[in-house]
Amino acid sequence: MTKHRETSRRDFLAASALGLVGLACGTKHLGSGEAFAVDDELLYVGTYTDDGKSAGIYLVHMDRQTGQLRLAGSVGAGANPSYLSVHPNRRILYAVNEVDKYDGRASGAVSSFSIASDTGLLTKLGEVPSEGAAPCYVSVDRSGRVVLVANYNGGSVALLPVESNGALDAATSVVKHTGSGPVADRQGEPHAHCIVADPGNRFALAADLGADRVFVYRLDLGGKSLQHVEGGEGIARPGSGPRHIAFHPTLPLVFVANELDSTVSSYRFDAARGALSLLDSWSTLPSGWTGQNYPADIHIASSGRTLYVSNRGHNSIAVFPVSTTGALSVDQVVSTGGDWPRNFSLDPSERWLLVAHQRSNSIIVFARDAEGGRLTPTQQRLELPSPVCLRFRAHAGVVT
Description:
It is a single chain. This protein is mostly beta strands and about 400 residues long. The protein has helices at about 5-15, 20-25; strands at about 40-45, 55-65, 70-75, 80-85, 90-95, 100, 105, 110-115, 120-130, 135-140, 145-150, 155-160, 175, 190-195, 205-210, 215-220, 225-230, 235, 240-245, 255-260, 265-270, 275-285, 295-300, 305-310, 315-320, 330-335, 340-345, 350-355, 360-370, 375-385, 385-390. Strands 14, 15, 16, 17 and 18 form a five-stranded antiparallel beta sheet that branches. Strands 3-2-1-31 form a four-stranded antiparallel beta sheet, with no helix packed on it. Strands 4-5-8-9 form a four-stranded antiparallel beta sheet, with no helix packed on it. The chain starts with a helix and ends in an 8-residue tail after the last strand. About 55% of the residues are buried. The model is unreliable at about 1-30 (pLDDT under 50).
């Protein structure tokens, strides 16, 4: 989220407060809905619907061998189904409805959909309030028992229990963040931007752009609650604006993309106590570049050897080799070939990296070198309105 996006969202939301009827729009399927080819992976794409051009959540087939993308269908998912998460059982998909008003109060919503096993098409199960305005992130804990939501304008995080059929119950735990930062127009109040369970599924980490903190919560699955770990939070550099989180797959390290100062930070994570300690930060930009830039997404390869961060403004992906101490060094900053790269994703084989360009309405595929992790542009691309989140069904239950 950037000031540009925040301003346009406020203008849009002022004119379109949503209630139950507004979100319960009918399902519309595009394409033939055929079963997958042997070499296909299913990709879901979350979008912004502000301009009326997006149909909602898109279904895309990707050929594992060539990286080719093919539009397979879509589903009407209410306003701004921007961020997505797939249940570990691969049968349910969740989407935030990133709006400021829901059912007449200051909240967005979270929608749930069943996934057809043969075609991957979505059928809506329902929606519940996110208990905060402008929800911008949703994740599922590793057991599949609860869904976690970050509310950007609400400055809060929420826990929503999962019912037996995959639909959601009303939130049983809502925590309002506190704090602020030195960037006056972005950090006057808390802005929760991400919440995800740790690999041990005992804690949940929440990045807050406004408070310059990564808060740590004990994840109480029995009591269906989030319990703040006093003194456990990672204290970011003032004005950095923590946005998204990636856990190292084998080491006690957490990496955070910082939106406001174009850096990525590493933290040591004490999984016994639930405590973070800042190690260091590195620029996501080439030396000497001085334009406006806002990092967005962050992912680490399953080997733990390569970290990736997307740059909006410079319109690039920064590639960092990762040392065993958590130290980073830029190996490559490659142009994404589009405008405003938001979410990106490594495919399940990690042969390909896909980038969603919000402003130029495209998804572009890069080939990935398995050894060094470097990226090479391909000719594979798909035109699609306002893509902002990419989720492979095969990544269900994966903690990034």
